[in-house]
Every structure is written in structure tokens, then in C-alpha cells.
Design brief:
Elements: E1 12-16, E2 19-23, E3 27-33, E4 44-52, E5 62-67, E6 70-78, E7 81-85, E8 90-93, E9 98-102, E10 107-113, E11 120-128, E12 139-143, E13 150-152, E14 158-163, E15 182-188, E16 193-197, E17 203-210, E18 213-215, E19 218-220, E20 225-228, E21 233-238, E22 243-250, E23 258-260, E24 263-265, H1 268-279
Antiparallel strand pairs: 1-20, 2-3, 3-4, 4-11, 5-10, 6-9, 6-11, 7-8, 7-10, 9-12, 13-14, 14-15, 15-22, 16-21, 17-20, 17-22, 18-19, 18-21, 23-24
The structure holds cobalt (II) ion.
Length: 283
């Protein structure tokens, strides 16, 4: 049975299924935000999910490429990825760990699987930066799994907190004053309820990793993204099976967006400048 909330909780506005795509050196993925179905969801520019135990689908990885003007967030559920950049920074991202990279004025980096077989599963999210921060120095917030708190609830549910604060008061390690993001990886026990306050003016979505969840009268199935209406909180219910999902929210920037591949600026001229700077070796 589902409950209808009239208390300002967010409802399901629409469902996005994502499209098969390929990026980097032939990595097969599903593009959920950043596709014709959902071009962007301010401040989120792109959401890719990858999941395969066939190395042919991921072994090519994402060789050296540039970014400017936004943030890339890599979060893994299975497998390992090695990250390297033009500033000499290098590290391995592991399941439950996160790399939140502020590309700012520009960085060249590569993200390669740190495995030759086995399951690789995870997400890359692009979060826009406001005009005032697009040309800042690049920076990282990188946290291994032991630094991203795993909240254990009485009903057996688990919440991995990357960014923001849960209803029970657990805070994630990533801080971001631009879009004040909430990024939770929630594993609900069968039939469990979930309640999370979300700033009323922030945009929020749910991506179901496993199982099925009910939001008000509607349900969201595995591998579906649900765009939520505005509201004060998110209320949902797992079906009679366990469910796992991401809940992501952030403050919309409400600025013009000009995209050019790996560069996301406010105007076309700024995107052209990014290509010129990159071609002149100024990254
Ligand atoms: Co990249």
C-alpha cells in the first residue's frame, strides 16, 4: 500500500530511462542526464552509469581528456578506477569512495580501470559551477570508503553519505558552497520507509540501482531515474524486496549553459576560448 503525502513531500514528476552510449575509449555506459530525454537538470549536467563484468566493455577506460567549468563526481559500487591528472595528482577510487573534482579553469585527466576482469559498476555525475567559479584553480575532494560514513538504521537500512546531512544527522565529507549538494547511496530493507529533508528550492532526483521504490502513488523501477517535484522532503517506501538508490539534490544555478564536449561555460565564446586554451597547451 502506498501513502499519499500532502505535507510538502516531493512527488515523482517524470521518469527517465537513460540511453545506451559509449565514451572514453569505448566504455559502454548508460547516459541518464545529458541525453535528449533529459538534457540537464540544473545544476546537474550529466549522469552516466556503467555496469559490466565484461572487460571489453570498460578496459579502454577514459584516457587523458580535459575539463573546464564544472565538477566531475566519480562514485563506485564495484571495481576500482585509477585517476591521474596533469597536475601530478594520482589515486585509486574504490567502492564506497568518492572523487569530487572541481575542474575549474581546466585540468587534463585520465580515469582507467584498475582491474583486468570482474565487475565494474558506478556513476559519474557532472555538477555545474556558477560563472564566478568556472575559472577557479582545479581542486579535489577525494575520500576513501572509510571516510564516507555508512549510517546504519534500526530497520536494517544503510545510508552511505557522500555529501549533505541525513535526517538522522550523519554528514558526508564533501563540501560545496556553490550548489550545496546532497548525495546519498541508500540501501533500504524490504518494506522500509525513508524520509529525508531536502531544501525546498533545490532540484532532486532518485536513481534506482536495485529493486523498486514507491513515491506517493507512483513507483520507480530498477535503472530508472525519477525527477522529483519541488518540496520540503523526500518520502519513499521500498517494496517487499530490498531496494538501493541514489538520492541527489542541489541548488539550481539558473545561469545560461553553453556546452562544448568536455567544457561547460556560460557562453559560446567562452567555450571557444576553452578549446583555444586547450589547443595552445594552456591547461
Ligand atoms: Co573526465
Amino acid at each position: 500500500m502506498t501513502t499519499s503525502y500532502s505535507d510538502g513531500s516531493r512527488q515523482l514528476q517524470h521518469i527517465v530511462n537513460g540511453m545506451a552510449a559509449s565514451d572514453g575509449d569505448g566504455v559502454r555506459l548508460t547516459r541518464i542526464i545529458g541525453s535528449p530525454q533529459l538534457n540537464m537538470f540544473d545544476p546537474f549536467l550529466l549522469l552516466d552509469t556503467f555496469e559490466s563484468d565484461n572487460p571489453d566493455d570498460y578496459i579502454g577506460g577514459f584516457p587523458t581528456h580535459p575539463h573546464r567549468g564544472f565538477e566531475t563526481v566519480t562514485y563506485l559500487l564495484n571495481g576500482r578506477m585509477r585517476h591521474k591528472d596533469s597536475a601530478g595528482h594520482e589515486g585509486v577510487i574504490e567502492p564506497g569512495g568518492v572523487q569530487w573534482m572541481t575542474a575549474g579553469k581546466g585540468i587534463l585527466h585520465s580515469e582507467m580501470p584498475e582491474q583486468e576482469n570482474g565487475l565494474l559498476k558506478g556513476f559519474q555525475l557532472w555538477v555545474n559551477l556558477p560563472a564566478s567559479a568556472k575559472m577557479t584553480e582545479p581542486k579535489y575532494q577525494e575520500f576513501p570508503p572509510r571516510s564516507t560514513p555508512l549510517e546504519q538504521r534500526e530497520d536494517g537500512s544503510l545510508v552511505r553519505v557522500i555529501s549533505g546531512t541525513t535526517a538522522l544527522g550523519t554528514s558526508g565529507p564533501v563540501s560545496n558552497d556553490y550548489t550545496l549538494p546532497l548525495y546519498l547511496d541508500v540501501q533500504l530493507a524490504a518494506g522500509a520507509e525513508f524520509h529525508q529533508p531536502v531544501d525546498t528550492d533545490h532540484n532532486a532526483f532518485i536513481y534506482v540501482i536495485e529493486g523498486q521504490v514507491a513515491i506517493g502513488e507512483h513507483s520507480l523501477a530498477e535503472k530508472q531515474l525519477g525527477v522529483l517535484t519541488a518540496g520540503e522532503s523526500v518520502q519513499l517506501l521500498a517494496s517487499d524486496q530490498p531496494a538501493r538508490f541514489l538520492l541527489v539534490a542541489g541548488k539550481p544555478l539558473n545561469e545560461p549553459v553553453a556546452r562544448g564536449g568536455p567544457f561547460v561555460m556560460n557562453t559560446k565564446a567562452e567555450v571557444m576560448q576553452a578549446f583555444e586554451d586547450f589547443n595552445n597547451g594552456n591547461f
